[in-house]
Amino acid sequence: MTVNFTTDFKFIEQLDDNLQLSFVYNEHNPEKNKTGALMQRDSKDDRVHMELKSVHPDSDKICINGMTYVLIKGKIKATWKWNDEDGVTEDDINVFKAYHENLPCAAMFEINYDMEAKQFIIDIEYSPHYTEWDAQPCIYDIDSHFASIEFLSDDVELICIMRKNNITDWQVEQIDLLPDQEITVNKSGTDCYIVNTNDVLINDTTEFQRIKGVMLTSNTAKYKNTSTSPQKLIKCYK
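Structure (tokenized):
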């Protein structure tokens, strides 16, 4: 197996024995977490959480990506490359392209692909587009041997959410909050964690800086974005 990570993720916390949060950002390691930083796999076997690998209803060459990365700032390039053995057709690529074009955050994407070169590239620049809770986007991979994420700016910030137990049971949703915006968060499922990605005030009493995961113990909680930038709230539940 071949994996090439030039980034340096900071471990944030483990949420009970359920989820693990890590965070990559420039200030943590300016020498590594900058333009050109790379996360790359060269084999299908390098995927994590293979038990999550289910295919898109319209193509068996488009499958669920078991790793949950959430872009909260900056610009990245996602690349997939395939070979003849992967058996990827233009019909498969059209399904993959249409999936991204129909996401609420499609304005974040600049999509290019080349069937002759056998590669598909999406430049992604974060901006807030989710005004309601919605499923985590960009959950699909091309079922190919190669995939990578490259930083296109120094200010990239990515959160990695790793499932520790009950791998297939977790659902992930997100919403974007503008500065000073306040919402009521409803608990979903039995175990429900809310991850803030910038400074927040919870229920007018508790302040957290970025990044913090909190298990909801009541049916609702009030969250206010007290930072000067848009931020995502991420809901993980089962």
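Residues 184 and 222 are 4 Å apart (CA to CA). The radius of gyration is 18 Å.
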